[in-house]
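Field reference: "sequence" (input) and "structure" (output). Example, 3-oxoacyl-[acyl-carrier-protein] reductase:
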Amino acid sequence: MRLQDKVSIITGAGRGIGADTAIRFAKEGAIVIVTDINESDVNETVEKITSDGGTAIGLVSNVAERDQVDQLIQTVIDKYDRLDVVINNAGITADSTLVKMEEAQWDRVIDVNLKGVFNVSQAAAKIMKAQNSGVILNASSVVGLYGNFGQTNYAATKWGIIGMTKTWAKELGKNNIRVNAVAPGFIATPMTEKMPENVLDMMKKKSVLGDMGRTEDIANAYLFLASDEARFITGTVLSVDGGVVL
């Protein structure tokens, strides 16, 4: 068990990458706190974990709201008295080209994808500093590294996450806290299932491996970075993209 009894918060864990990461962590012995904005999605992920013999609790929380984040962290500390891993996976899109993007689209994506990561990480870091240990993992994207048509807001948040990751790695290293980011490429999720076949084919062709990634590919990256196998890795961005940017 690579994460035996590690208390792990995973945001956006109701569906897709977050849900599969929560399930993967539980199989490796982690105590998983499944959190998302949708209660039914949270309950579904928790049920999948516990029915397979894993340990998980579900907590509904909006990462963009600081009071809800503080309550989330406090609930975890009250129950387990420690916090070992945080994965900032929650994120949204609201795409539009620069000249057409509305202020509300910009604000909504910034609030969840950037402010949300800040809220959770700041609250978690205070606990981790006190216990002199911890791992913070952030969801970036190849879009944050290279941009993407119609995603000014999303690209800005994912690039900002890289900056925060490297800054926090420098600030928190002396407290035995590692901070890393994962940058997925085109990943098959429930959202991509609704896309036209020609768009999916285009995504596959962009990868030198000729395929889209799977949610478990990202979950495995998070697992490695959270485990003691990555004890000397911090401040890095791990691209899991099938060579899409080569």
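The helical segments are 16-27, 39-51, 66-80, 103-131, 142-146, 152-172, 197-206, 215-226.
The chain has a mean pLDDT of 95.
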